[in-house]
Amino acid sequence: MPVLRNIGALARCLSSGAPGDAGVVSAAALVWDGATIRWAGPELELPAEFAGWPAEDAAGRLVIPGLVDCHTHLAFAGWRADEFALRLKGATYLDIAAAGGGIASTVAKTRAAGTDELRARCVSHLTEMAGLGVTTVEAKSGYGLTAEQELRLLGIYRSLASGPQRIVATLLAAHVVPAEYRDRRGEYVELIEQELIPRVAREGLARFCDVFVEESAFTVEEARRILLAGKRHGLAPKLHADQLTSCGGAELAAEVGAASADHLEQVSEAGIRAMASAGVVAVSLPFASLYLGVGPLPARRLLSAGVPVAVATDFNPGSAPSYHLPVAMTLACTLQRMTPAEALRGATVVAAQALGLNWEIGSLEPGKSADFAVIDSDSVDQWLYHLRPNACVRTVAKGRDIWRAGQPN
Ligand SMILES: [Zn+2]
């Protein structure tokens, strides 16, 4: 039950705050008891009941809510540096996919990898993410693409739930149509709908069902079937939508009441209006825009239409080979013209909303989980402007230290 005192700037990211308001309090204190925040505000107003609690010193630094990476493809084997070089020579994402590269090559490597190896890679990535201030990670399946292999990936995520971070699993069996189903794609959609979704729901292996709606992946009609089947079994819909082509993904997200529509580099005006009226969160993935040269997502148009915009890494071996969420936040500023405060909210309270967890995480308010990071900076603007390898000096999840600068993990 400590009190963190001498916080230079406490960015609370209040649930009720406006999109551009990080809820910053100067000269602040933060009180938590076990896994729960008890109080956050100006240190001078610290209630007497907490005055005698053990004090810790934030040394005048910035304190933010634990970062929420609400879109990753965490479990995969191998990398695709060869395609990075090919793209730089002019090959497009769709060219590479058509030649059997892209997602299909990671599927082959992932299927061949042992479960212990895949799990160890996830733990290694998560440990580094903890060092960057990330306390919650959404993790998608999607490199298995058979019932057994998809269940194996979700099983790995379940086993990671005992680790330091909160893991939110998503079934993404509809990532691409696997090669063996190329000429009978309807059968693959049926497999997801009739076999995989009921089993994943019954075993409680995922919270969300996601579909990649794109020319190289699934049509709007196929996605509708899969997402509605997921919904009938209690898996909330999410979509990879309108990334490379404007194909009605945002409109479908609104129609099925998705928790989020992610990517949206090519979103239409009608799609933006539909998302605003249905309350769908837009998840921006600036690394994918940076690496593919597509986009960026039109954050200003989305925000002015009233659509909340989250920021995530899309960590995957193809289009976004980085889990550095603070860098993605800086890119959200430079590429998408979001303010640092909007980017911070996008990677905390709005990201929590995209995961249906904003009642529990994403802001520093009494009753919420004691998830926060201490940043060696004096303001949100300074932190996201001055790009350093890592400015995070301490990460706390559920009231426990999960990382401290200079200490072994
Ligand atoms: Zn993705």
Give a description of the structure.
The protein is built from 16 helices and 16 strands. The mean pLDDT is 96. The chain is globular, with a radius of gyration of 21 Å. The two termini are 23 Å apart. The strands form 2 sheets. Strands 1, 2, 3, 4, 5, 14, 15 and 16 form an 8-stranded mixed beta sheet that branches. An 8-stranded parallel beta sheet has the order 6-7-8-9-10-11-12-13. Strand 10, helix 9 and strand 11 form a beta-alpha-beta unit. Helix 6 packs parallel to helix 7, helix 7 runs parallel beside helix 8 and helix 9 packs parallel to helix 10. Helices cover 37% and strands 22% of the residues. It has 409 residues and is of the alpha/beta class. The structure holds zinc ion. The site of zinc ion has 5 residues, from loops.
Low-confidence stretches: none
Bound molecules: zinc ion
Strand fraction band?
15-25%
Distance between the termini: 23 Å
| Secondary structure tally, helices | 16
Radius of gyration: 21 Å
Class from helix and strand fractions: alpha/beta
Shape category? globular
Q: Overall pLDDT, averaged?
A: 96
What is the helical fraction, as a range of percent?
A: 25-40%
Assembly of the depicted chains: single chain
Could you give the count of β-strands? 16
Please give the largest β-sheet.
Answer: 8 strands, mixed
